[in-house]
Design brief:
Elements lengths: L12 E3 L15 H7 L1 E2 L11 E8 L2 E11 L2 E6 L17 H4 L3 E6 L18 H15 L4 E6 L1 H12 L4 E7 L13 H6 L6 H11 L4 H4 L6 H7 L2 H11 L10 H14 L7 E6 L7 H12 L6 E6 L6 H4 L1 H17 L5
Parallel strand pairs: 5-6, 5-7, 7-8, 8-9, 9-10
Antiparallel strand pairs: 1-10, 2-3, 3-4, 4-6
Length: 348
């Protein structure tokens, strides 16, 4: 039976076919967590109108100072950004969404391991997505808020899915946004490198080019005034160390084994009922790196086999960062998805 989800006629947004086969009170943060959470981050790193801070996260054999945004009230929601291994990529990418989502949820958005202003891992072997997953899991545990609504984009969606498979008891709903990282191989795994070959070699200009090239409307997604915090963080000594370590081969042996590891997880998701929470795939038709009708549908086909609460939204005239191109629409659809499943836990 075809379920339809009408959002806005001006753009194509639809729910794919369904499977064929009171408010949560956030727990108080511990006194130790509060002490770490009160450390402010430099103002230069902040999205205008938002204030970030640090919390000490015990993970990967050490203490990882983690920068994050914390605003709003209601059920806890954790936003996980894409990109990685450089200061340029950070939770700032959610800056256009956080204020709207915070009207409904208590929103937390952290810089991933070795991204933004979050510390590098204590051991070079952890510069890989498994290290990112463990750090984010321990970050959520440090918040001490119980089960969360987890939203991840791009590589952050890969992190979110892997963390949910490993720790399903921590996730109330899962939203996965435009991710080549979690897609099976459908013949365009080198698309990012091909796109980046068209960008300048200068690190700063290359990053800005990447953000706009992956967007449908680059200026709308990333206006000029959105770049300064990322440029500031990208030139910190910590960020330079990160990139040097990655270039020198940090993260091995797991970094080179990721595709095989991912395929093992995808095979399990297709064959086993691993996840009980509602799952939303929210994908852009015009994403040049991981288009919805190719990569998005491939992920949907895997999840829907054993996870009947899987739904999919497609958005037209939008790219890899459609949550920034149409932030109000994105927020509205994510909130509607969560509210529906909160009111209808069995999908009825």
């Amino acid at each position: 039976m075809l379920n339809t989800f009408v959002v806005r006629a001006a753009r194509l947004v639809r729910r794919c076919p369904g499977s064929t086969a009171g408010l949560f009170a956030a727990a108080l943060v511990s006194q130790a967590g509060l002490a770490g959470a009160q450390t402010p981050a430099p103002a230069e790193t902040n999205v205008p109108g938002l204030t970030s801070k640090f919390i000490d996260v015990q993970a990967l054999g050490g203490t990882i100072k983690t920068r994050y945004y914390d605003t709003g009230s209601g059920e806890p929601m954790v936003l996980v950004h894409g990109g990685g291994w450089a200061g340029y990529y950070s939770a700032n990418t959610w800056g256009t969404n956080i204020p709207g989502l915070a009207k409904q949820f208590h929103v937390f958005a952290a810089d991933k391991l070795a991204s933004g202003m979050t510390d590098n891992p204590p051991n070079d072997k952890d510069y890989n997505i498994q290290g990112e997953v463990e750090h984010m899991y321990q970050f959520v545990k440090a918040l001490n808020v119980g089960k969360v609504h987890l939203v991840g984009q791009s590589r952050g969606a890969g992190l979110a899915l892997l963390m949910t498979v490993a720790h399903p008891e921590l996730v109330k709903t899962l939203v996965l946004v435009d991710s080549l990282t979690i897609s099976p191989d459908v013949g365009n795994s080198d698309m990012h490198n091909r796109l980046m070959a068209k960008c300048p070699k200068d690190r700063d200009e290359s990053w800005k080019c990447e953000m706009r090239m992956l967007s449908f409307d680059g200026q709308r997604a990333f206006p000029d005034d959105s770049f300064p915090p990322g440029l500031y963080m990208g030139h910190l000594p910590k960020s330079k160390v990160t990139m040097e370590k990655i270039a020198a081969g940090a993260g091995e042996p797991l970094a080179s084994q990721f595709n095989a590891y991912k395929q093992t997880i995808l095979d399990r998701l297709k064959a086993e009922h691993l996840l009980d929470m509602p799952i939303l795939l929210y994908w852009a038709v015009n994403d040049p790196q991981a288009p919805a009708l190719k990569n998005g549908i491939a992920v949907y086909d895997i999840l829907v086999q054993k996870h009947p609460q899987t739904r999919m939204l497609l958005v037209n005239n939008a790219g890899h960062f459609h949550y920034r191109e149409y932030p109000d629409e994105f927020n509205h659809n994510v909130i509607d998805f969560i509210e529906f499943w909160s009111a209808h836990p069995q999908g009825r």
